[in-house]
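Hi everyone, sorry if this is the wrong subforum. Our group has a chain we'd like a structural model of before ordering constructs, and none of us has done structure prediction before. Sequence below.
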Amino acid sequence: MTELQTHTEQIIMLAWSRILGLDDDGLQTAQPGIRVDAPDDAANAVTLVQLFGRTVLFGPSEVLAAAREVPDEELALETRLLQVCRSVSAGARAVGEAHLLFCEEPPQVEGSDTVSISFNAEHVHQLTTQSPADDVARSGLEQARWTAAVVREDTAQTVAAAGVEVWHQVLGHLGVLTDPQHRGLGLGRFAAAVAAEEAFTDGLIPQWRAAAESPGSLRMAIDLGFARSGHQTTVALR
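Answer:
Right subforum, don't worry. Here is the predicted structure as tokens:
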């Protein structure tokens, strides 16, 4: 399995410490097996992050207190975290579980005679308007500050797209979307490889979040050289 260098892990933990409202060394100094609470009473979501053996629970103090006696392996389950959150907020709803992956080597980008890469935002818009809304939301393309589309040479149809969203000037969070009628052809992988290369060019560490219910996303990330580094479970409170 792909391994990350210690220095890369430290940079990732710095970024996630900031994301979770901890001190910059919050994750690095956390002891494996001892969960760190990151209280934020203004938070409208609760998230459990497990990264490089460290565990952090972020959310309102009331929810953190309700979860205090619940083991990490239980809280990592969407159903159990939702149960804890609903004991405090009846309107809580599950957002999902996801694998967190990172890479430190740019994936190989191979050329193609049948498709080309377009940086025209209209091509990405074409794809997002013709794709299922849930897929578009999960891809994060609408929040990405950089996007690229894979366009068929013969029909000018956008068949896949990928984007990079910058997190705390350190991580390049990748999102990928493939047209439902063109899945399984490697087009999403092609778009993702281009996006990962862009992240590296900007000095960012590419990050991939693969939803637990999407094994294809996890396989694609691993195929591109991403290393499985953690897990995230999130519940929205309102």
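For your construct planning: The chain has eight helices and ten strands. The helical segments are 6-19, 61-66, 72-75, 78-86, 121-130, 133-139, 187-201, 215-223.
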